[in-house]
């Protein structure tokens, strides 16, 4: 390893120690090559999972738990990456997931391609800062082109939202059910979305509660216009089903508060004992009386409910649930229109929420309480079902992506076609733009265009199409101004994706370009890796027995 520890010598030959003993430093080209190599490896890992014909990954963690997924962000979250540059690539899948929810694989593939192409330029002696500047210019122009070509749609257009959700789910395990699931997701979001002026909607995904339970099949997944609580009715004597429910939401306990200090009560007569207990009883009973006096027939309590109070509630015919989560209380309030009350004394009829039905139902082996049929719920639930735990887990992830893309389009109603069409179109326009530039910057912009093409080409490759033929074909189509031509994975041909209703949010494409350019730029600007004593220097680039071992970090070893 050519890593040099820093000790330098002064002109008089005195060594100057700057770093702690055991630190190491990798400089210049070698540092760059190492970083690019590690980042490219990460892109290689997720590449084969891109698109509808992408493969899934089976990930086994150190405890032996298995995750099966083709979601880029999840794959990279599960593998234990340690190389610092590789970590930066993992980061972009995370931020993309947080920002727009979809496109995580694409962002990583694009970053990998940008770095790979930069490496070629570096080997031709183009300085990295020139590449970084060229990439930045290209990205700015690419975003402008994206904005020009994207199709502005009517805010809240159901058909468009449906297609967007379907496209996102078509690349996943749930593809066969994507039509039904898309309709359900669009319904859920339109229900909780708030109008945000003329421009679009505002959506808080917290208002869609996603619960999952293995069993049944994916097609049993349901939208509940209300909230599902994974709690049972607290007392066996209570009703299990209440129609036209009037719901009290209480976030204080229906119990007698214990005193903070210890008190001693001396009793010399059994009747006094009885009186004392009766007193307690009375207090609990009056709490229950308060609940039923305002007309509530359902009580959801965030805290505990005393046994005696349960008994009185049961006698009064009230269905009660205790220890509901705080987040569920908020959602219940939004769904039923009820107000969360802290002081039971203050409870009035106006505070009660309403639902057509509150019912305890058996979901596989658990008993859950369904609060449903709310009139205009501002929070709803989706109950995800599927053949096994792993299926519901992956279904939930895919539905998260779909929820996010629908949210993206509700908030920013602009779409582009999928299948790599916008990437190919932007690449083609960028090449025209590059002609106006001079020298080495032009080279960088052209490489950026090539990198964008890696998206349609990877889709084609994963679908078993010939990469060279596809590249020639797609370039020719975009040269003829057919801007929505992309990879039709079903037919194995290049065709009009907009016509096939394969559409995606413009916001996702924007994020992909932004995130990957930033990460690539950041990695390219590093020409010095200084690792402190604990770690060894990053691995050597391939060439020899490199392979995956070069990643160092996979599986938790140090690098
Ligand atoms: P990501 O994590 O980047 O979203 P996906 O595996 O979901 O990765 O793949 C997304 C890519 O698949 C997008 O470029 C999208 O346009 C493309 N795609 C989705 N559905 C189709 C389809 N039916 N035909 C062709 N390409 C599709
Ligand atoms: Mg996707």
List the SSEs and their pairings.
Elements: E1 8-9, E2 15-16, E3 24-27, H1 28-47, E4 57-60, E5 66-69, H2 72-78, H3 84-99, H4 104-123, H5 128-149, E6 151-152, H6 158-170, H7 178-192, E7 194-196, E8 200-202, E9 208-214, E10 222-224, E11 227-229, E12 241-250, H8 270-293, E13 298-301, H9 307-315, E14 319-321, H10 326-336, E15 340-341, E16 353-363, E17 366-372, E18 380-386, H11 389-411, E19 414-417, H12 421-435, H13 439-462, H14 467-479, E20 485-488, E21 493-496, E22 503-505, H15 506-524, E23 528-531
The structure holds adenosine-5'-diphosphate and magnesium ion.
Residues 102, 168, 171, 401 line the site of magnesium ion.
Commentary on this structure:
By secondary structure, the protein is an alpha+beta fold. It is built from 15 helices and 23 strands. It has helices at residues 28-47, 72-78, 84-99, 104-123, 128-149, 158-170, 178-192, 270-293, 307-315, 326-336, 389-411, 421-435, 439-462, 467-479, 506-524; strands at 8-9, 15-16, 24-27, 57-60, 66-69, 151-152, 194-196, 200-202, 208-214, 222-224, 227-229, 241-250, 298-301, 319-321, 340-341, 353-363, 366-372, 380-386, 414-417, 485-488, 493-496, 503-505, 528-531. The strands form eight sheets. Strands 11, 12, 13, 14, 15, 16 and 17 form a seven-stranded mixed β-sheet that branches. Strands 6-19-22 form a three-stranded antiparallel β-sheet. α9 (307-315) links the parallel β13 (298-301) and β14. α12 (421-435) packs antiparallel against α13 (439-462). It starts with 7 loop residues before the first strand and ends in a 28-residue tail after the last strand. Bound molecules: adenosine-5'-diphosphate (ADP) and magnesium ion. Magnesium ion is lined by residues 102, 168, 171, 401.
């Amino acid at each position: 390893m050519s890593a040099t520890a820093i000790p330098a010598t002064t002109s008089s030959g005195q060594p100057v120690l700057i770093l702690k003993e055991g630190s190491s430093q990798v400089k210049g080209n070698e540092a760059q090559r190492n970083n690019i190599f590690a980042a490219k490896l990460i892109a290689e890992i997720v590449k084969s999972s891109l698109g509808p014909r992408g493969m899934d990954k089976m990930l086994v963690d150190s405890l032996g738990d298995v995750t099966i997924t083709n979601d880029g962000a999840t794959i990279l979250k599960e593998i234990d990456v340690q190389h610092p540059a590789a970590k930066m690539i993992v980061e972009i899948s995370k931020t993309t997931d947080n920002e727009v929810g979809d496109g995580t694989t694409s962002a990583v593939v694009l970053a990998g391609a940008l770095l790979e192409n930069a490496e070629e330029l570096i080997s031709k002696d183009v300085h990295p800062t020139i590449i970084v500047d060229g990439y930045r210019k290209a990205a700015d122009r690419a975003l402008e082109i994206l904005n020009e070509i994207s199709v502005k749609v009517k805010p809240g257009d159901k058909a468009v939202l449906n297609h967007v959700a379907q496209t996102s789910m078509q690349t996943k395990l749930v593809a066969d059910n994507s039509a039904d699931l898309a309709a359900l997701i669009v319904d859920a979001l339109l229900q909780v979305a708030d109008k945000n002026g003329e421009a679009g909607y505002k959506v808080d995904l917290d208002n869609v509660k996603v619960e999952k339970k293995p069993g049944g099949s994916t097609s049993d997944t349901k939208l509940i216009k209300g909230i599902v609580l994974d709690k049972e009715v607290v007392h066996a004597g209570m009703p299990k089903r209440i129609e036209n429910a009037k719901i009290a939401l209480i976030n204080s306990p229906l119990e007698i508060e214990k005193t903070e200090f210890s008190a001693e009560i001396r009793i010399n007569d059994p009747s006094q004992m009885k009186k004392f207990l009766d007193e307690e009883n009375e207090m609990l009973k009056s709490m229950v009386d308060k609940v039923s006096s305002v007309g509530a027939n359902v009580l959801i309590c965030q805290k505990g409910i005393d046994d005696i109070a349960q008994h009185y509630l049961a006698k009064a015919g009230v269905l009660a649930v205790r220890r509901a989560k705080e987040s569920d209380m908020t959602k219940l309030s939004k769904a039923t229109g009820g107000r969360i009350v802290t002081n039971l004394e203050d409870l009035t009829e106006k505070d009660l929420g309403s639902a057509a039905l509150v019912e305890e139902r058996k979901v596989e082996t658990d008993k859950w309480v369904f609060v449903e049929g709310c009139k205009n719920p501002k929070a709803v639930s989706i109950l995800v079902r599927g053949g096994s735990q792993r299926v519901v887990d992956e279904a939930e992830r895919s539905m998260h992506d779909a929820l996010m893309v629908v949210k993206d389009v509700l908030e920013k109603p602009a779409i582009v076609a999928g299948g790599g069409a916008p990437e190919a179109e932007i690449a083609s326009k960028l090449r025209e733009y590059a002609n106006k530039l001079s020298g080495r910057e032009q080279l960088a912009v052209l490489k950026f265009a090539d990198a964008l093409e890696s998206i349609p080409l990877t889709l084609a490759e994963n679908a078993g199409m010939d990469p060279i033929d596809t590249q020639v074909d797609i370039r020719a189509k975009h040269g003829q101004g057919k801007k929505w031509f992309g990879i039709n994975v079903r037919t194995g041909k290049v065709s009009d994706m907009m016509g096939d209703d394969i559409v995606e949010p413009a916001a996702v494409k924007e994020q992909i370009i932004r995130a990957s350019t930033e990460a690539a730029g950041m990695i390219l600007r590093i020409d010095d890796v200084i690792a402190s004593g604990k770690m060894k220097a990053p691995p050597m680039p391939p060439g020899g027995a490199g392979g995956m071992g070069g990643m160092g970090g996979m599986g938790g070893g140090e690098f």
